[in-house]
Model the fold of this input.
Amino acid sequence: MEKQYNQELRVKESPIVGLFVVDLVVHGDNRGWFKENYQKAKMEALGLPAFTVVQNNFSYNEEVGVTRGLHAEPWEKYITVANGKVFGAWVDLRPGDGFGTVFTCEITPDKAIFVPRGVANGYQTLEPRVTYTYLVNEHWSAEAKYTFVNQFDPALGIQWPISQDNAITSEKDDNHPLLNDVVQG
Done:
C-alpha cells in the first residue's frame, strides 16, 4: 500500500514571526519516494523569504528520544528530515513582543521548516535512525554567537513526546539557561 503524501506545495507562517512551515510535494510509489527538498523560485513565490544556501548539514540520530537544542543561531536555517520523524520545537529569543513565543510540530520527509536567525531550534527523534538535515545561509564559525534556552524549561510549556527522564540529551544542552535568564539581543 502506498503512503499518501502532500500533493501541493504550501508555505504558511507559524505563530513565530518569520518562521514558516513548508508542506513539500512528495511523489511515492512501490519503490519509495522523491521530493524537491528546496526549490528557491517556487517557494519564494509562495512567501518563503529569500534564502541563499551556503552549507548543507546532516545530523544522524540512532535512537528514539534523542533531544537536541534549543539553540538560536545567527543565521537562517531550512530544516527537514531525509528519513524518519521528529518532534520539532522553536522559541523566539529575539528582543521584542514575540520573545518567548513557542511553536511545535512534527517533521517528516514531506514537511520542512524555515527558521529565522534568533529563533531557537530543537528536536526530538520519534523513530530510530533519523537523518535530520538543514540548509543554512552562512558558514558555521567557532566565533558565531548563539543564544540558548533549556529545552525542558517548564515556562516554555513544550509537550515533548518523550519525557525528560527518557530523553537522550547532552550535558551542554541540559545546562542551557531558563527562559527568565536568557539575555535578549
